[in-house]
Design brief:
About 40% of the residues lie in helices and about 10% in strands. It is an alpha/beta fold. The chain has one domain: Rossmann fold (3-Layer(aba) Sandwich). The protein has a 6-stranded mixed beta sheet. Strand 5, helix 6 and strand 6 form a beta-alpha-beta unit. Helix 3 packs across helix 8 and helix 5 packs parallel to helix 6.
C-alpha cells in the first residue's frame, strides 16, 4: 500500500529550488513558496527534489513550487555554515517571488523560545504585510519523537506567533506525526524523514493547504 502511495505522488525530477508542476490544461498555475529547514529541503536520509513533501504537495494540488529549504536554519539560527541565513533574512525573497500561498515550516534548530517567538512574530508580520492576498500556513518544528511528548517550548513559541497574526498553524508535536508506527518513516540518523516519510508528511500537509486555498478563493482574503 505504501509503495502504491509513493508511486502516485512522485513527480518529474526538477531542481529543489524551483519545481514547476501543474495539470497540463494550459491554465495559469497558482504559486507555492515553501520556507524551511532540512525537513523541507531534504537531507541525506531522503526528501530531495521530487521526493520532498513540498514537491509532492505542489504536484497533488497543481501548484508551481519555489522551495527555500536550508539545513540547520530556523527563525533564530542560520546554521553551522558561514553565511547561513535564518528565516528573517529570507522573508524578502519569499515576498519577491509573489506566491499565491506560502508554507513556513520549523524549526527544530531553534533553541530559545522567547527569541523564537519574537523572531517568528516579526518574520510572519513582514510576510503578511508583503503578501496581503497570499494564503499563509505555518507549520511548527517537526521533531522525530517516537512517543507523544505533549508539547515543546519552541513549538509553543511559534504557535503563539501564528496566533498573534491570525495565521493557521499545524503543530506536528501535538499531532504526534512521527510517533508510534509512523516513527518508521524517520531515517537512520534519528532526525530526518526518508522518502517514504516525506510522502507521509505530504499527506498530512496537503489537505490543510487545500482547505486554506479553497477558503481563500471563496472568501477573497485570509
Amino acid at each position: 500500500m505504501l509503495i502504491a502511495l509513493l508511486a502516485s505522488l512522485l513527480v518529474t525530477p526538477a531542481t529543489a529550488e524551483d519545481t514547476v508542476t501543474g495539470t497540463g490544461t494550459g491554465t495559469p498555475r497558482l504559486r507555492l513558496f515553501v520556507l524551511g529547514d532540512s525537513i523541507a529541503g531534504g537531507s541525506d536520509q531522503g526528501g530531495h527534489g521530487p521526493h520532498g513533501w513540498p514537491a509532492l504537495v505542489a504536484h497533488r494540488l497543481g501548484l508551481a513550487l519555489r522551495l527555500d529549504g536550508e539545513g540547520g536554519t530556523g527563525y533564530t539560527t542560520g546554521g553551522r555554515q558561514p553565511g547561513g541565513r535564518p528565516y528573517p533574512r529570507r522573508i524578502s525573497e519569499a515576498i519577491a517571488a509573489a506566491p499565491d500561498s506560502v508554507i513556513v515550516e520549523g524549526s527544530r534548530n531553534d533553541l530559545a523560545p522567547a527569541r523564537v517567538r519574537t523572531a517568528a512574530v516579526n518574520s510572519l508580520r513582514r510576510l503578511r504585510a508583503g503578501l496581503p492576498h497570499a494564503r499563509i500556513l505555518v507549520i511548527g518544528p517537526i521533531y522525530s519523537d517516537p512517543r507523544p511528548v505533549g508539547s515543546r517550548p519552541v513549538d509553543e513559541a511559534v504557535a503563539a506567533a501564528a496566533r498573534t497574526l491570525g495565521l493557521p498553524y499545524l503543530s506536528p508535536v501535538r499531532l504526534g506525526w512521527f510517533t508510534g508506527a509512523a516513527h518508521r518513516f524517520i531515517g537512520r540518523d534519528g532526525v530526518h524523514p526518508t522518502n517514504a516519510g516525506h510522502a507521509y508528511l505530504a499527506e498530512r500537509i496537503r489537505p490543510e493547504l487545500s482547505r486554506l486555498l479553497h477558503r481563500g478563493s471563496a472568501s477573497g482574503g485570509q
